[in-house]
Write a structure and sequence with these properties.
alpha+beta
Length: 512
């Protein structure tokens, strides 16, 4: 299978599709020189011929006879050499036989087309075999079959000599990379076959061998999940298997153990070609390799039903390569996220530290502010108490004034009543009639004057009280306005003070 995949690619690709069906000229039976631009439809390019300017229609028939007479359809060694000796190609291939591969591949060497001999293209030179090969494969007007035969013979000749001509349209000097098919089938879950696990025969003449846990312990550093052994009619067959996890990581572990066996020279080839079952001292040498389908069939040779070891043949790319690529991408993403988390944690820590400092300063500031507020409150209470004392003091003074005024008013009323009482008790009945009249008029006049004077007193007193109340209202208004003005001044001063001591806006720097 590998030989088929490594087989050399064809040196010359098949002729271009419809490459020979160039627009051609044909002679119409009715008028000379009329052109037919449509290529022949449905025709066989090796049978159908097109008239040229200097070649008759009989040329290809003669050439066809020359080719078919010497051509053997089985393409054997004898027929190839015989076809080379055709009268059209003989001299060309005789010259080619004298050249080395390096000389053949020289791009400066010039060639005539042997199929165009005695024809319109006989004098054309082709630098290197590539242009000549292209000409022979794509010639579409005259001697089509002869040119195709030249291309086939030249391709076969170069292939036999271990060289080739770069196909038309390809760049000279390209490299060949890996084969297209890089995938392969693998046993799934991954398994490693361990050979020579026999120990000795028992009393029934049947072989005993290594146990499951013992095999796992021997290869404990490779993380196999299970171990199984093959048994047959004679007991333990000396063939064991380590089963790994059904994942890309499990396959890598199995492959790592496989390479370990290769490194120490106890792999499949050694087991098959030059095994040494026993080491000096009598210990058995274990051999191991990755399991393939044949190994699994051999392991299950004497197993039936549920005792058969179950496995599948799966695509290596699907089960290992693609998951490993995905794991690589996930790891890159994980590393990115880890780095991002570390940066975020560092930034959070810096912000937390800064926030702690700011919080401590804020707490201290709040304590200071609370102390100031307490002091201000104490002062305010002192001021209120002082104002209260002052109000009481002034209130007492006013009350005292009011009492003095009331006493004066009472004394004044008492005086008026006494004078009136004197006037009324005055003796007006003694003396002459005239005297009595005059005394009565005097008393009445006194009383009337007193009444009038009291009325005027009361009116002026009411006016004084009204003016006094107005003054008090005016004073209270001016006082409240001044209080409001003082409060506004305090508010403006506090606003300026807060603006002056306003804290800066906290921003975590990007470097943090």
């Amino acid at each position: 299978m590998e030989r088929e995949q490594q087989a050399p690619r064809p040196v010359v690709t098949p002729p271009l599709a419809n490459g020979w069906q160039w627009q051609s000229r044909s002679r119409a039976s009715g008028s000379e020189g009329q052109q037919d631009h449509a290529p022949p439809s449905g025709g066989n390019p090796e049978v159908e011929s097109v008239n040229g300017n200097d070649t008759s229609e009989d040329d290809d028939d003669d050439l066809s006879d020359d080719i078919s007479d010497d051509y053997d359809s089985d393409a054997s060694e004898k027929s190839f050499e015989t076809r080379k000796m055709n009268k059209w190609f003989k001299s060309f291939f005789e010259v080619l036989d004298t050249l080395s591969v390096e000389q053949i591949n020289e791009q400066t060497r010039q060639w005539h087309c042997p199929a165009c001999k005695n024809g319109p293209g006989a004098i054309d030179w082709y630098k290197g075999l590539q242009p000549l090969m292209t000409h022979a494969r794509t010639k579409g007007s005259t001697r089509v079959k002869l040119h195709r035969e030249l291309a086939a013979l030249l391709e076969e000749e170069l292939s036999r000599r271990g060289t080739s001509v770069v196909p038309a349209g390809e760049q000279f000097g390209k490299w060949k990379g890996l084969r297209e098919g890089t995938d392969r089938e693998i046993v799934w879950p991954p398994m490693v076959i361990v050979m020579n696990t026999l120990l000795e025969k028992d009393e029934d003449d049947k072989w005993k061998g290594m146990g499951n846990q013992e095999l796992l312990d021997y290869f404990g550093e490779y993380a196999a999940t299970k171990a199984r052994h093959a048994y047959g009619p004679t007991g333990h067959r000396g063939m064991s298997v380590l089963i790994f996890e059904s994942s890309a990581v499990g396959y890598i572990e199995a492959e790592r153990l496989h390479r370990h066996f290769i490194t120490q020279g106890t792999d499949r080839n050694t087991w098959q070609l030059r095994r040494v079952p026993f080491l000096p001292g009598g210990k058995r040498q274990l051999y191991g390799f990755l399991a393939n389908k044949e190994d699994m069939e051999m392991f299950n040779k004497h197993c039936q039903g549920k005792s058969r070891l179950k496995y599948e043949m799966r695509s290596h790319n699907e089960m290992v390569v693609i998951p490993m690529k995905q794991m690589s991408e996930d790891n890159q993403q994980l590393n990115y996220l880890k780095n991002k988390v570390v940066k975020t944690e560092q930034r959070s820590k810096a912000v937390e530290e800064t926030l702690g400092v700011v919080t401590q300063r804020l707490r201290e500031t709040m304590e200071e502010n609370q102390f100031v507020r307490d002091k201000a409150k104490e002062k305010h209470l002192e001021y209120e108490q002082e104002m209260k004392y002052q109000e009481e003091f002034f209130h007492n003074q006013i009350e005292s004034i009011h009492k003095i005024t009331d006493a004066k008013e009472k004394e004044f009323e008492k005086l008026l009543q006494e004078e009136r009482s004197k006037a009324r008790s005055f003796d007006v009945d003694s003396g002459t009639t005239e005297d009595r009249r005059l005394r009565k008029e005097h008393v009445q006049k006194f009383i009337d004057g007193q009444v009038k004077d009291v009325a005027e007193f009361e009116a002026e007193r009411d006016e004084l009280i009204r003016a006094h109340e107005e003054k008090k209202i005016k004073l209270k208004k001016e006082y409240m306005e001044k209080v409001v003005e003082v409060e506004k001044e305090l508010d403006a001063a506090l606003t300026l003070l807060m603006k002056k001591h306003k804290p800066d806006t906290f921003q975590a720097s990007s470097s943090s």
